[in-house]
Structure formats: C-alpha cells, structure tokens
Structures
1.
Amino acid sequence: MTQTNNLYDVVVIGGGPAGLTAGLYLARARYRVLVLEKDDFGGQITITNEVVNYPGVGRTTGRALTQTMRQQAQDFGAEFLSAEATGLDVDGDVKTVHTSRGDLKTFGILIATGASPRKLGFEGEAEYAGRGVAYCATCDGEFFTGKEVLVIGGGFAAAEESVFLTKYASKVTVLVREDDFTCDASVAAEAKNNPKIDVRYGVELKGVTAGQGGLREAAILDRATGETETWKPADGGTFGVFVFAGYVPATQLVRGVVELDDHGYVVTHGYLETSVPGVYAAGDLRVKNLRQVVTATADGAIAAVELERYAKQLSEKTGLVPPRPTASAYEKAEAASDASAAPGTTPAPAPAKRSADAAAAAAQTAKQPGELFSAAIKQQLGVVFGRMTRPITLALELDDTPLSAELQGFVGEMVALSGGKLNSVAVDAAGLVTAIDGSSAPAGLVVGEPLEVVLPGAGADSGDSGDGAVSLPLYGSLDDSGRAEFDPAGVLPLARPVVRLCVAAEGDGADKSVLTFTGLAFHGVPSGHEFNSFVLGLYNAAGPGQPLGDDLKERAAAIKEPTDIMILVSLTCTMCPETVLSAQRIASLNPAVRAEAYDVSHFPELKDQYGAMSVPCIVINRPDGAQTVEFGKKSIPQMLELVGA
C-alpha cells in the first residue's frame, strides 16, 4: 500500500460535542482524523453556564466539559484546524472537503455542524438585538440586574435559562406557545416552582418597542382569544427579552449533497449514514427526537465506529494509507507510567485516569494562599512564555481605585512567572512612572519621570518619538472618589485602569525611555473568560503568534487606513474571548489597527453610550468618522469582513 501524507481517514466538520467525540474515538482507534471548526471548538453548549445532567459529571460548565473532550481527542492523536468548510466533493473513493485554508482529501466525512439559535421574527427583534433582545443568558444576564425579563420558548433551554436568569432579574416571565413546557417534567418543574418566575401558556410575543434607555413595551398575543395585550414591567422601566425558541440546523453546506427533511435537518439511517456513501451525520443537525449533549456524544461515537470500518475498507480497496497516529500523548504517558516501576518490585497501582477523581485533580491543581494562578495554569503559562520571541512591557495606566490595585497585583504575578518575557511599568494620572517590575524592563524607564508611548504606526520600527510621531496621552484627571474620568463618546476612551501591551525600542541609538504600543489593550482586569484571550494576545504581540493562513494574513495587512476596534465585554461571557482574540490578532499583524477591550461592569458609561444590553459589542471607528456598531461573536474572517478587509 502507498502512504499518502495529505490524506485523512475521516474529516469531521464541526467541533461541538458530536465532532469532538468522533475525533476521540477515531484517533484512539489509530485512524487519522481531522476536526474542522470555523468558530469556537465546543459548539453551542459552550454558552451554557451550568451542565448538571451529563452522566458521570456532577456539575460543570459547557465550556469546561467540551474543553476536556477536545483535550482527550488531542491526546489520542486527533488533529484540529480552525477554518470554514466551503464545499464538498463526495463522488468517488477519495472525497474532498474545500475549506478557507485549502482542500482536504479524505475517505470519510462526518457532518457535525450543529444548529444555531432560531430567530422568531417578531417586530423589533432584529432592530433591538443586542440592545434589549438577547439569546445567551450566561453572556447577557447581568445587564438586566434588577429588571424584569421575558423569556420566549417552552423547551429545555427556556426552562433552564429562565431559572439562571433569576440570579439577576427581579422577575422572569416565560411565554410558552403551547399548553405546557415541551421538555422533561423535572426540568420544567424548576421553572414552574421558582417564586421569581411567572409562566404564561398559550401566548406568543408579537413585538417590542423601545424608548429612553431600552425596551419599554411588549405586545403579547393570546392564541386562544386572538386578543393582543400591551405588557410593561411593574416598575414602568425597561426590560429584556431572551429568546430560546429552538435551533435552525446548520446544513447549508450539505444542501443538495445529502438528503434533508422539510425543516432542513439531515436524514440519517441505521448507523447515522446519510444518503451518500461515506458521509455520516451526528448531533443536532440530524433528524432526531432529543437534542442534548449526551445524545450528541452518542451520535459521535456511533458514527465514528462506522467510519472506522468504512475507512478501513477504502484503504484496502484503493491501496492508499493515511499516516495514522502511532505515538499519541496518551500512549507516551502510559508508557512513562509503566516504565516508572523498578524491575523486581511490585508494580504501583495504576494511575487514576484524567476524569476518574475530579476532587483529587482539583486539589492537585489548587491555588496556594496568596496565589492567583493554579499549578495547572502556571504550567500552561510556562509553555506560552517559552515560545515568546521578544519581551512585552505591560504599561499600566492606574487610578486610585481598588480595581487598579487588583490589576497591578494580577500583572505582577504574571511578570514573576514569565521568566523575563514580561515586565511592567505603572503610571499615575499625571503620566509619571510610579513602579517598574521585571528583569527585562527597558533601561530608560525611571520612577518619577514621564512615560511616553508611541502609537502603532508612528515610529513603530525605531521607537523614535521625534517629529511626526504621535504619542498616546497617559495623563488624565480623577474624580473625588479617585476614579479616572473619561469621555465615553471618545474613540477608544482612556478608561482606567488599563493594561497596554507594548514593546521597547530596538536598535543602537534608540530611545529606551519610549515604548511602542502594539495596539492591544484591556481596560479592567483580564480575568474570567478573558484570561485566555489576554494570554494569547501576549503571544501574538510578542511573536510568533498563533498560526494563521496566508490569505487571512494578507487581508489583515491590506488594511491601510487607521482602524480602531473597541470591544465591550463581560468576564462571564463565553462568546467574548474569541471576538477579542480575533480583533487583537488582526491588530498584532497591522500597526494601523488598534483593538482594545473594555469590561463593561466597570465602565457602565460605555454600555449607556452605545445602548448595549448584550456582549460582545463591537464598535469600529474609521478616519472618515464612520462608525459601525455590531453585536455577537466574530471569528477572524468575520472580523476582517466587518472592518472591510
């Protein structure tokens, strides 16, 4: 047989629970499998704050559960690619998956693209999306603290998320079209029995209208009488609407390729094969009576076992053999464990598997008193710091609030862990240096002296701040409470505290007291879900950065006009990190682009300025004064399209 390096046994399209499970099973069986995902690995479940019904796992988050799935698949040898599938050629023994990063050759294909939240089309839904109408309770629930909210839907998501929303809302009213919830009775019971939830049956939302500050009224139709009432919150203020009305299958890629039902779901047979030999489907995009994580993972396993057989048959038929994994991380760990037993001694008990004892794993990686980061996180940081090719100076613009002290402590511990790859300089409202930390700190920085930071594209190569260079203002004013004052209507407002990623001037004769701003900044403390995007921002700013296709690099480099991207985020939002990372990856490649993130919980003026009741909120400003305001998670290709590249 002939070894073919560019051939896969199976390409899995979709990195949710179904796709990740299939990747795990195929890789463990030593087949070459690639999992392709255009957005965020993990799928829709990553926006679920709490998962309590996955067998064997007591309580977790959707993101944590799928991160474990991905790590398991990767440890067994599965390959991953962030790209969008753009077309399929399914004729013949060797099929082709066309992607935004090139073509993939494979024997078998698993379609696991899932589904996306359904839009209902009520009046005002599109107009006020992100400004009162939301689809993610975890991401946007805190915006409605102390307010009433309407939840639209009668399934699992509506029942579960209505209970979650009671953490924030003063009252939750659930509007159910049918005579009862359509989900499991025990799940519905939690919503029905919650004193902060009112459930109304046989009704539907016809529209919403807004006034000063947000949504003010809702039109609700009684399906039995045909009468429409005007609903307002009891306090006469604003309210929110959360839509959980099912999903639309993401099957556009296979429309006209495999058989679909009248609703656009993939029709599968016995063991999840589609109407095309060698093409299987798993997860929420196929016709089935229950769409839950557990059924998605079951689908992935069933389809994977069938695809193993199919790939084996095709390999024997064609004489082509993909380079299958033979030494995975899992096998190396097992071999190392076996080798640790000395000859002639009684072998030690077999080590517990990764998921066997969650409590022990948590204890092993627990933080010590006074430490911000666990042992596991420190290990991951060490890998990132070890790959950085130049030091990064974290310029901290502080005020006199506890949040500034928190940011300084957070950055200080990262500097201490970085092995010289990070250093920091703190400046007060007058723009004077108050503290310098880190062995790689530029020699020209002096406590008590002004700090100068050159904007991207202005002396970026030399650090020269002479004629023609534009420096970023590092000064400001404080109010009576010690909080920095800023103009929320300004372009990339100078809200403090902020950490800016900078590099020192390089070359003989360069002014070592001047820093060059990379265009990446975070206003607030980049913890919670933003921690990963911040760490990857460091890696991207320091180089070499995350791998990116040449086409995307060229599009990023083609941006000629100065472009400022402001991303309003929440640390509880699971969709924000990818959006921040996408904008900042572009900024790391092009000095004409600045991408700064703002934690709206600390800067509510920005939420009010843009009427944002959902995150991520993306504000793009261009030199001609044009401004674009957009909501929702964005990948790098989507962000490039948004900025017009």
2.
Amino acid sequence: MSSIFTFLGEVNEPLAALVIQAEADIWSNPRATLIQGRLFSEELAATVSKMEKVEPVYAIKPNERMQLLVRRGIVSEEIKESFEWLRRNGNIAAHDVKPIPMDLALTAHRHLFTLAQWFVESYGPLDISTPVYSMPVIPSERESEGSELNPSVSDQLEQLLSAQLEAKILPALTEKFKQLQDTITQVTVANAIDSQRNTHDPSMGSKEGNSEIDISLSGSNKVTDYRADRSSIEVREYLEEKGMTIVDKRKHGGAMWIVGGWELKEELLALKEQKIYFKFAKNGSQSTKRKPAWFMMGKDPTELRWITLENESLPLIEPAQHGVPTNLPTAVNAFTNLGNSETVMSKSDLLGSTDDQIIEPTVEPIVTTEESRLGTEIRKSFLNKELVFPQSMADMKLDDININGCGALLAYLKEKCRATTIQEIPEDLPNLANQINGVGPKGIERFVKQLEEAITAEKRLIGSGKRKEQAVMAYRRLKKRLGRRPSYLEIYQQGGIDSQEYRLLFDSYYNFLLEAKELDKTESAVAKRYSGWLVEIENTIIRKSYKMVLLLAMLDRGIHDWKRPITPEEAAPFFYEYYMSIPKRKEIDFSDNETRKLWDAPLERTAQLIARMPMTHLAKSAKRLVRYTEEGFSIGFQIRESDNLTLYEWTREICEYRLMEYFERKA
C-alpha cells in the first residue's frame, strides 16, 4: 500500500519510516498508531530543536522542548496543537487498557500529515511539493494477506462517518443554507422596494412576477452586491484597497493576517469603532513566514467582518459572467427543508445547475514587497564578464571588502565617481582605466577578481535561504544609518528585524560579526577564543531574569574585578536593588509568594535565593564555563589580560540586551 508520507523521506528518512509505520497500523492496530505518532512528534521536535540550534546541552522533557520552540517563535500555536495532541493521546494509548476507537487513529493520521507537511515546507528543499491530504484507504485482501484485519473495521468506519455526517457536516450545511436564505430574502425585499419606486417610470418596467434572480456564488459564500452605492465592505477588501498585504486563512479555520510592522497601528486600531480588533505579533506566524504582522481577533476568527462606510460611494461591481440562475421559491424551499430531510442533496441538485457552472475561487500567491526585493540581485559587467552580487551586498561599503593593490582605483571611485557601495560601482571600468594614473588593465582585472572572491564569501555567509540574507541586510542598513558598527542593543531597538535571528542563525551576535568579517584582527581572535562563553550566555534559557542579573552584579565590580569569585552575600545588595528600584522589574520577577517575603528582610534571604537559583542553575547548565564552590561563583576559564576589556564589554552588552528584551516581552 502506497503511503501519503513518501515525500517526507526526501528530507528525513528516519522520520518518514516512523510515520509510514504509524499509517500502516491504523486499520489493524489503532493503539500502535497513537504510540507511534507520539514517538514521531517527539523525534520531530528534537530534530527541529537541533536544526534551529536551540537544543540545550542538558536533557529536557518533550513538553519543555515544545515550550522552548514556541517561546522562540519557531513553532506556531496551530502547529503546537498537533504536537500536543499526538503526545497526549499517545501517552493515553500507552498506559490505558481501554479500547482505542478507530476515529482517534484517523485523527492522529491527520495531525501526523500536518506536522510532516510543515516540516518539509519549513526545512526541506524548495522543489519538493507536498500532496493534498487524503484519508488512508482500507487495504485490499491482497495487500492485507498474511495479516488479520479486524472484521469490525467496516462497521466502525461506517458508524464513524455517519456520526461525523450527523454531528458536523449536516449542521454546517444547514447553517450555510440559512445564511443564503436570509441573503436571498434581503435581495428579494430590496428588489420589491426598487420595483415600487420605479412603478411610475415606464422605462424601468415592472418587476412584479419576476421569480428568478441571478445569484453568483463564490468560494467564500458571499452574494455579490450589485448596488453602485454600497453602505458596507468586507474588511479584507477594505484593507486591500489600502494597499496592505493580506494573508487570509479564514476559510481554512485560521485567522486573517496583515503583514507589516508597527507603522500600521493607526489604520488598524482605527477600526475599533467598527468593533473590529487587531493585535500585533512581533514574530508573525507560520503563515507570514515569521514576519511582523497583525491578526484579526474575535471569538470566531473565520467569520466575515463588515465595515460601514460613511459618505463613500464605491464603483459598480459587475455580476459574475457565469452566475447561476436560480428559481427563488424553489431554492428557499430546498434550504428550509434540508434540516428535516433524510436525503443529502448534492451541490448541483441545490443550485439546479451542472458542475461546470460552479466557479471555484482562484488563490493567487502573495508576494510581499520585502520578498520581491530580496529576490533582486545586482548584476554588473566587467571585462566581458557578468558579476552577480546578492542583494545583501547592495549596502556593503567598498571599505568593508578587503581589496588590496587597488588604492588608486578605489580613491578615484570614491572621489570622482562618488561610489562608496557595491551598487554604485560604474560598469565602464576598462574605459576609466585610461583616465586614472597608475591604473591599467591588470589593475582592473585584479579589482574584479577580488570582487568575485567577495561574492563567494557573501554566499557562504547568507547560505541558500532568505532568513540569513534578511539578517545581513538589516545589519548593513542600520550600520549605514549609524555610520558605525551597531551594538547588540541597537540591533534590538533599531534593527528592523527580530534580534533573536542572529542567535538562532549564527549561534550568537558576535559569531555573526566574525563570519561577516565585521571584527578587526584582535576582536576576531577574542570571538574565536571565547566563542563557547558568548554562545552560552546568549542562549541559556532564562525563565526568570536572575541569571543575567547575577552576571550584571559581577560586571558591576569593574573590568579588573569581574572575573574574581562573588559570594551570594556580595551579590545580594545589587540583586535586591536591581528589582526593588524599578516597579516593572519588581512586579514581573520579584513579586511571587517567595520573593515577596524578601521585601522586608532582604539581604540574608536574598542571598539564599541567589545561591539556590541563578548560581546553582547556571553552574549546571554552563559546564566548565562557570563554577560554584565554597569561595563563590566565578568564571571557570582563563581570560588573557589583552582580551579582558573586549570580553568584558561584550558580556555586558549581551546581559543588558537580554534583560531589556526579557522585561519588554514580559510587560
């Protein structure tokens, strides 16, 4: 029997083997399907955690790993539900002796497909196409030869489908038909009013007795409004007219997303008067490819929302070319009687038309401005050779490329041609060679060759995906605006991209600077020598801010003393003052049942808290990088005196950045 999960084998064969086995056991052993599904979800989460480089060095539980992935914005809430469903029901199947109903195995199959499709689309090659979901088929006698198929499978499946039909499908159809009935009634009343108004106008004719109305049904079940002056408009159409980029998942049970940042605040929040509410998500969702976006709120996110227009006349909307003529009384009777009828009517029966009259909606791919800009490369021709620069090099300064032996040419480009970046380099370099003293064909050739080497290095930096390219471009745009290398805090506050991307994609911000050749020779040596320390403090999980405050207390002692051991008693005054001096910090991390007791008797109990919480936990997680002994808490590795200042400043930058990001996120 062929499996729907074969596409997963092109990306990860072990995961594909797990899920194919789970699918094969659906009809013969539903319990095995659920247990296998739980194993698949846990293994998939561990695989993603390692690929995203967020897996801790110590062992964690599956539910803790999932919380970590959700907190880092890697797994969306809808994907998390599939992970949680498989884990929860797999545990029940493994420990509960009650029979496993067939519908649970079929539901597990659907969740398994959702996760497999998400994994391939997120981490697989772009040329892999995932299939449309379909339920597994019961194996034929030949396929099931040698294995005994449960004789009651057919009866169970029949009961399952019957229950699904009665419980979900028929009520949903009935509700839709009631909505259509109400809409048709409104159109009938409107036509009757128009008929009365036009009675005295012979040119208009009489509409009495006309029992047929032309109705166009679209994929969103909307009735086309032919009035030239409409009083309302659906929110998606309204926002599209404003030029916004929409990702509408409502017809699939999801939400409607508006791609964009805080600049959309005024226009979207203005719709509160219409009782339409939007909320900003800094990391967007899987639907927006993790770009900042707003989503529409409400009890039922799938419903259509209408905006009332004041003194605004919209252009006439022509009826659909392939509208379905429907006899109004017949349609109304059919819709009314559907709930009482034992016969399920087909779409063509209800509409009185053939299938070729029904027009299915066409969904066009949404391409945002940022995506289209990222796909643009810079092409320049030199010496009959075309050089293709990645878009990320557009704002790259010529000074940032280590070009040797071309001083006269570079000076001419900057002073005479006003070219300081890659995209400003003129293409007629061979002709310019005659105008520059000391520059000949060999000099031009040497310059072009070094540009080729820079392109190779850039492609190695950004890889094949778009996330690294976005991070590099955001960094260079900010650097160009500031006129210098941005600090970690400046990247967070002004970078125009989620600052966590540098940690997720390059392990740490300073490792990114190293790979991007943004550090000088001395700084590069420090970044390489103490990479483990920088990665650890930037990636260590902080459920509360205590770890970073402890490091800040060490740093507060100064450049020369921050390395020596610090006892809990020495750290207590700084620790206590840090939280009690700012109400927001106090409310977020110093107001639970335990820390509230420290308000009146601070130092001794605060020292006990520091010893138990940040010192012990950080010493366990940061193996060999820090140590906690009787002498106190201290750095567990040697720091060269020549490296001390740079490492001190970088450590402080990371602490200040992580604390600011933490409290702003918790606020």
3.
Amino acid sequence: MKKYLLLFVTGLCFSAVEAQLVKQGVQTPKKQSDLDWYNCSFDQDGVYGAEVNKAYEFLKEKKIKKRPVVALIGTGLDVEHEDLKQAVWVNPKEKANGKDDDKNGLVDDINGWNFLGGKDGRVMETITREGDREFFRLKDKYADYITSNGEFFKIIDGKRTLVPAPENLSEYVYYKTRVLPESEIAKKYGGWQIGYVIREYGDKFKSELETKYPGQKITKEQFQTCYDPNGPVDTLRDIAFTLIALGFQVYKTEDLSVVYENFVMTAVERAEVEYMNVLKRYGNDGREDVIGDNYLDIKDTRYGNNVLLTSDAALGTMQAGVIGARRGNARGGDGIMDQARIMALRVTAGKGEPYLKDMALAIRYAVDHQADVIVLPQQNTLYPEMQKKWMEEAIRYAEDKDVLVIVPAWELSLDLSKQLFFPNRWMTDGKELTNLMVVASSDKYGNPSMNSNYGAKELDLYAPGVSVYAAYTGDTYQTGTGMGLASASVAGVAALIKAYYPNLTGSQIRDILLASVTSRKGVEVEKGIEVGGKKTQDLFLFDDLCLSGGILNAYQAVVAASKLAEK
C-alpha cells in the first residue's frame, strides 16, 4: 500500500494546476470550499459550486431508488482506488476467468473495456489524429494534385505536368478544405509538392532577371520586378514569388543568388525531410500491430482488452472522484453521487484524437450494459461522413434508451456558432438529439474558463472544473483543472437525479439541468476569444456564452426533478 506519492498530471484534455504530497487517509486542512468546492453553494460557502450539499439537505427524507450507472468514455481508471472501490461498476454477467461469460465478444470485461488494447495485454499509449488518418485514407487519390487557375497538375519525373481533374471532385474538395487543415502530415506533404513549384519558378525568375540585367548581381529590388499586378493570373507563380521574396528576410541578404542557392535549389529536399520527420513522428500509432482491427469497419468489434490502469488513468480517476468518491470519509473530495456505479471505457491515450469507431462502440456498450449517463472525452472538428453516421446512430440509440450523453467543449477560445464541432445536437438530418449536452468549465468565482469554447446556442451550461480536488491514481488526491472535470460535475448531478427519480429520461434530465442553473444572466465576464488566429480577451454577458446562461445547480435540479416526477 503506497503511503506517499508526489503527484503530477499530464494529458491532452487535462492540465493540473497544483502538485501535492498527500498522506493516505489524512485530509488536507483546507476548507471544502477550497477543495471539492463543486459541492458547495454561494449562499452558504461563498463559492459558485453546484450546490450538491444543499441538494442532499432537500433529499434527506427521500430514499435512493437505484444505483445509476455512469459510463466514463475516455481515459483509463484506477479501479482499486481506496475512495472509489464502492463506486466501480461490476459486470454482473462476467467473471474474471479468461472466458467470455456474457457472450458479448469481450473477455473479462469486469469493470469496463479498453478499446485501445490488444489480446496480448498491450495497450496503445498514443493515437493519431483524425485529420492524419483521413490523409492516409485519401493520400493516393488526392495528395499529389496541385491546382492553379482551374487546372490540375502532378509532379511527374520531377516536373509539373498537366493532368485530368480528379473523378470525384466533391471528395477532392473535402480533402483540400477539411482534411488538409486538420493534418500536419498532409500539410508537409503538400509543402513537398510546392517545393517543386518553387524550384520551377525560381529557375524562371532567375532566367528572366539575368536576361533583363545581364552581367549584374540581381538584388532584392530587381527581383521585385518579377511581380506584375496587372499581368495574367498565375496562382502558382504568385505563391512561388511570395515564398522566394520571404527568403531575402530569412537569409538577411539583398543578393538573389544567396536566396537561390540556399532556398530555391534546396526547396524540394528540405520539404521532403520535413515531411519524413513529421511522418515518423505522427504517422503510425501502432494500432495495426497492437489491436489488428480495421478501424473503418464498424462490424469489426471483437478487439481490445480489460486493462484499465493505464498511464493516462489520472484524468479518468479524477472524473470518477468528482462523480462517485465516498462522501464524508475525510479522504479526498466528496463525490457528488457516491452510490453511482462507474464504468470505464478507454478510447483515448496520452496524445491524439479518439477513433470514432471506438467511441461509437463504447456508447453502444454503455447503453447495452444499462448505463444511465455517458460522458464522452471531447468534441472534434472533423467527423468523416461514414464515421459521423456511426456516432449519430450511437447517440440516437442512447436517446432511444433514455440515456443522457455529456461532452465537454474544447479549451480553444472558439465561437461554436462559427466553428462547427462534433458531436452536436444538430448533427443528424432534421431531428435534434435531445439527450446530448455540451458543457464547459467554470471557477469558484462564477467565471467561465478563460479558454473554453462558447456559444449562446451551441454550449449548454458551465459547470465546476477549475482547481477541483479529487481522487488521483495510486490512492492519492490531486487538485486539477480541465474540461473533463466539468463534464464529470454534470454527470454526477445527472446521476444524483437518476438515483432518486429513476423514471426520468436522459432528455428530461437535460431539460431539468438547463432550466435549473444558477443564473448568471446579465453578468458581464471576461472571456478569451480568437480573432484572426490570435488569442485575445473581450467582455461578454454570461448569457451570450451558453444556452442556459448559468452554472450547474444540483439543488435546483433535484427540486425541479421532484416536481416533474410527481406529475
């Protein structure tokens, strides 16, 4: 049994703000309003928590009618944590015997499942990004095309050559406008192709100038004459001219020969090296070797393993702590609903973006194993159409089974009305997903996270997620900040409602949570935004940042649930 551990947090979706050395079984002497402040309320504690303690005062004469199941779809989980053992979900139809007792194709899925695991017990520690995966899927079709003035070219034997247009122009446009911006590998590959264009036009510029200024050293000023704003449109010539012109600044010279020798003549080789370096770094996450499935086949389902204590389990453990840690035992923070049962479904790793197949199958697994609330790891800007359909159908399946699905908004300071993220309530054709909630982090002072995405219609509400104290791997406890903690706060309150009012559906619970927030309407707050690709700040009314105009409130939610259940 470990008694001391110096804590630190790493992860894509989570950032720690304070490292602590915590002795097992001994609570730090700080007030609750400084630790698991999400349980507190402004009128009693002076912080904008979710009023969980106050909710329990209202519920003290009522009996719990079910132990709700919360499925954490994301990182791993420390299922042996001293403060979480009672809250870990156990598959009632499975035994730890190396057999598939419940005949679902997964062996020993006792507490959940790791979709990033192999049959030999190995797990994937990093995963690729969706944009890179799409690049590899479409590379042979479209990556070699260079377009200019409505014409299509490819580099053949080192020369730019006119070729017919791609057969599927709509898919080509998708590659250029959606995949290319999302993939660093695709950008570097495109830069390699542009290297040939730089060399081609660099030779042309040099020849033109030597004819125009025979026997002279060509200067930057003379090079500028290669650009004719009134000349015929030639997109590739303009691109090459601009890049070569920048070379004078990069090499701090007025001499074209310096730029030509160091930039033009080496453009192809340098770009190839850059592409190969980024390909080596991000091009292969080892899925084929570790798992061996086809990630583009939703019917290929029998993969993964039951290893849940992974190197990225810190966030999942903290989320579980917020939701279901034992209340009142003076160890760590109090969970919002410690009678909840937490199911761990791992689809994310230390780096990269979840495979949509894994998420869709995890949602279905959760629903089929009676989950009441599902927490997804993140939204994303790129959902390939076929895989988007998998997610649509999975979330709709959860809706049909009365399950609430919660997803946190990214911390990118983006306006969700201008930048489309998935999943969202309108991702299906013509029918809103009524069981899906998009949430973001707020702090104890009632302010939104400075960097969270926002949207008056697209973001539902804010919830405690800044400087939250909760269980951490290794029977320890940690203070951390992250969008995953906000979604855990919402999941905990949803589970609290479901425990006492089990007949309410996921869609009804979403409506209750939206209508029962601690209202911040009319309050002016500072918020991070992005303008022209640069981060800055501006002032907003709180109700312009999210649909509800407020912060998660468990007390008001259970009061509203009680009234609805009595009807």
